[in-house]
């Protein structure tokens, strides 16, 4: 599996698009759309929260305004969509607040391996046109190897987040996905008394649609 390691979300966006552009193959999806698709990739981002310019690539189809709207959609929901991540994470099956459960579990069991959430509805998603790309989230807190200076300065443990995407448009959707989910990581870190740690983003089918965001693709590849 290809591994990309970066400091910021904007840098990761650039490298992801370049990876698919130079290594992908042309194919037609089951919905009849032409796309460029590459092999699975893991992206590790060490500072997912930062300045706007560090989080939103200057040539991203998802500008700052769209990313802010997407963050609000994750936390508050939105009408008119077949699904939202808010629905799947905060009201799974209309009742399970998986994020609140994760926060409570991390506060009770610091070393847990069970701080996970899922989005897939196996009884309906396989036959629905629009289904979640993000499938699985896991959060982990581990003791850091602090020295005396870290203790003196009151450094907190870090909350790492791991994401699994079955498929993702790395040109048109990665930017807003990463900003929105890093914001979720930041909130959970705050609620559990942690600092934001690394952001691990795994995609089994990274792709983009060359005609949909043609101008942004050209600027990204040439920048």
Task: Describe the structure in your own words.
The protein is of the alpha/beta class and 223 residues long. A 6-stranded mixed sheet has the order 1-4-9-7-6-5. It has a 4-stranded mixed sheet with strand order 2-3-10-8, covered by helices on one side. The protein has one domain: Thymidylate synthase/dCMP hydroxymethylase domain (Thymidylate Synthase, Chain A), CATH 3.30.572.10. It is built from 8 helices and 10 strands. It is globular. A hairpin with a 5-residue loop joins strand 2 and strand 3. Helix 3 packs across helix 7.
Q: What is the strand tally?
A: 10
Instruction: Bin the helical content.
Output: 25-40%
Count of helical regions: 8
Q: Shape, please? A: globular
Radius of gyration: 18 Å
Mean pLDDT across residues:
93
Strand order of the largest sheet: 1-4-9-7-6-5
Task: Give the topology.
Layout: E1 2-6, H1 9-23, E2 25-28, E3 34-37, E4 41-45, H2 52-55, H3 64-76, H4 85-90, H5 98-108, E5 116-118, E6 134-142, H6 148-152, E7 158-165, E8 168-169, H7 174-191, E9 195-203, E10 206-208, H8 214-222
Parallel strand pairs: 1-4, 7-9, 8-10
Antiparallel strand pairs: 2-3, 3-10, 4-9, 5-6, 6-7
List descriptors.
alpha/beta, single chain, globular, four-stranded mixed sheet, six-stranded mixed sheet, Thymidylate Synthase, Chain A, 223 residues
Summarize the model shown:
The protein has 223 residues and is of the alpha/beta class. It has helices at 9-23, 52-55, 64-76, 85-90, 98-108, 148-152, 174-191, 214-222; strands spanning 2-6, 25-28, 34-37, 41-45, 116-118, 134-142, 158-165, 168-169, 195-203, 206-208.
């Amino acid at each position: 599996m290809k591994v990309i390691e970066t400091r910021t979300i904007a840098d990761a966006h650039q490298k992801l698009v370049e990876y698919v552009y130079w290594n992908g193959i042309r194919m037609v999806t089951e919905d009849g759309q032409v796309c460029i698709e590459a092999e699975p990739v893991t992206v590790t981002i060490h500072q997912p929260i930062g300045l706007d310019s560090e989080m939103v690539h200057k040539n991203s189809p998802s500008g700052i305004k769209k990313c802010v709207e997407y963050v609000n959609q994750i936390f508050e929901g939105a009408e008119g969509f077949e699904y939202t991540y808010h629905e799947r994470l905060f009201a799974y099956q209309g009742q399970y607040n998986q994020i609140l459960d994760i926060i409570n579990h991390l506060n009770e069991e610091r070393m847990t391996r069970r701080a996970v959430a899922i989005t897939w509805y196996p009884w309906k998603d396989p036959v629905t046109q629009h289904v979640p790309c993000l499938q699985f989230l896991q959060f982990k807190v581990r003791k850091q190897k602090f020295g005396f200076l870290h203790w003196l300065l009151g450094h907190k443990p870090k909350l790492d987040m791991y994401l699994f995407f079955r498929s993702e448009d790395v040109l048109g959707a990665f930017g807003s996905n990463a900003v929105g989910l890093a914001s979720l990581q930041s909130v959970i870190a705050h609620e559990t008394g942690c600092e934001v740690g690394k952001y691990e983003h795994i995609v089994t089918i990274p792709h983009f649609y060359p005609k949909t965001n043609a101008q942004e693709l050209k600027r990204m590849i040439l920048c």
